[in-house]
Amino acid sequence: MIKNIEKIISSLKKAHADAWIIVDYENKNKTLVQFLGNKMLTRKIFLVFPSLGKPYIICHSIDTVFLNCKEITDDYDLHIYHSWQEMLEIERNDFSSYSRVMMDISENGLLPRISLADYGSVEFIKSLGKEIISSGDILQEFSAVYSSRAHELQLKACENTIKIKDEAFKLIAKLINEKGSASEYEIQKFICDRFHECGMVYDDPAIVAIGPNASNPHYGPSKEQFSLIHEGDVVLIDMWAKMDDPEGVYADITWMGYVGEGVPPEVEERFQILKKAIDLDLEFLERELPKRRVEGYEVDDIGRNYISKMGYGDYFTHRTGHNIAVDVSPHGPGVNIDNYESHDTREIVDGVTFSLEPGIYAPDFGMRSETDVYIKDRKPYPVGGRQDKVIPILKLLKK
């Protein structure tokens, strides 16, 4: 039996949709591969889950050599075409009873990770008089909700990452005490080496940035280009990695430090604005999730509006957070906390994780605070630690 078929049917009924139509070519849609397996499919294919009746596949005769087998035909009927004219005619006939269908599209194409249905297929089905809505919520269930084992791996990754973060700030203090400076690059390399020692992997190296460098959210030092960290610098460390396991889930955190034995009031005050923005996001989730459907854009509005109210809206230049899932990147395919780069109307559901990472990227110095939030039993659980105050880095030498 098809895994999670009940969940698909429930989602279709909830959206008042007659079918979920997945269109693909050469296994580009990972969700289709989840259902059918990684088979050698070389022609255009439709995988259709109707709200009533048996799911079916519209496929070319050449591809039946891999699809006409018991493991497939037990779960799906095959509707076979030879020519393109036949394919369009099958679509007309098969979809004739549908009024409203889900396809892998996003509103105005704003969510590329789910905009997998090609323009021509969408337009043809629309020409048949069908209303097409986004399958974003269903896709999330199959791409961003992960197992309890994956969650355990996530917690391990977070534990390791927080520990390495502490070591990195202490190394900055040690190097400055010994030789008067530390380079962004050597701290980055230390973090990456420690990740490997802990059995972790990542897609890109950590960000270690001081002052104006940190005002570029994706600045990263390199062997050829970096700045030296000195006393009086504001230091941002953004680091992400996962356990080297097929079910590994990223830890993705950002912490702030100041190279001194104390932190100047103007630095701490700006950080506290970011901390309060995250607090407000979490309070909103705790209050609203048990009561209703909550969508990603709503959470972005909460923290962003507070930062704007405090006078820094022009310096918050990206979404509040991104999905984290079992993926090669910390930027997963599920709901983002976003009403800035896009209007993310996907539901925040149990079993997903996302970052909360508001930032203030002013010309004098950049600042970001980031934790990861896991949703369970309609409650938000920060799993990436929470920073309460800017770290006075030189004070670490006395501990």
Q: Could you describe the 3D structure shown?
A:
A hairpin with a 2-residue loop joins strand 17 (371-376) and strand 18. The longest helix is centred in the middle third of the chain and has 32 residues, at 148-179. The protein has 399 residues and is α+β, with helices and mostly antiparallel strands. It is 34% helix and 21% strand. The radius of gyration is 24 Å and the shape is elongated. It has 2 domains: 5-143, Creatine Amidinohydrolase, Chain A, domain 1 (3-Layer(aba) Sandwich), CATH 3.40.350.10; 149-398, Creatinase/methionine aminopeptidase superfamily (Creatine Amidinohydrolase). The strands form 5 sheets. Strands 4-3-2-1-5-6 form a 6-stranded mixed sheet. Strands 8, 9, 11, 12 and 19 form a 5-stranded mixed sheet that branches. The protein has a 4-stranded antiparallel sheet with strand order 13-14-17-18, covered by helices on one side.
